[in-house]
Amino acid sequence: xxxxxxxxxxxIIAKVGRERAISMVMQPYNTELLTTLxxxxxxxxxxxDRRL
Length: 52
Prior knowledge:
- This protein is mainly alpha-helical.
- The chain is about 90% helix and about 0% strand.
- The mean pLDDT is about 90.
């Protein structure tokens, strides 16, 4: 059975509460964002080191 995102969020909220649901949904997004930023910083550092 396929549920849209709104329905899925309602199901999660019903089981764990609103605050916990928001935290659970945001954690993977924040992890992906942080990983992307760290990779960009590392790439910038490598470019900087090559120029030295």
